[in-house]
């Protein structure tokens, strides 16, 4: 099996910033859940940074915790 290359490393991103909402949105499902590693192909270290950044962005209200189904 060929070793998968982490898309975040491939893009040359060294620091995952919670203010980078566009990047974080790529790793959220349509229900705003964090996409699992086996699906996104992100390395373990980056997945942990990503999860922390997403949670931080939710805390400061840059990302919603859940999407309101009634708001559609």
Class derived from helix and strand content: mainly alpha
Q: How many helix segments?
A: 4
Number of strand segments: 0
Content of β-strand = under 5%
Approximate helicity band: 40-55%
Unreliable stretches (pLDDT < 50, length at least 5) are none
Distance between the termini: 42 Å
Mean pLDDT: 87
Strand/helix succession:
HHHH
Largest sheet: none
Overall geometric form: globular
Rounded to the nearest angstrom, the radius of gyration is 13 Å
Written description of the protein model:
- The chain has 72 residues and is mainly alpha-helical.
- 42% of the residues lie in helices and 0% in strands.
- The longest helix is centred in the C-terminal third of the chain and has 16 residues, at 44-59.
- The chain is globular.
- The N and C termini lie far apart (42 Å).
- 14% of the residues are buried.
Summary of the model, kept short:
The protein is mainly α.
Break the fold down into its secondary structure elements and pairings.
Elements: H1 7-10, H2 21-26, H3 37-40, H4 44-59
Structure characteristics:
72 residues; 4 helices; mainly alpha
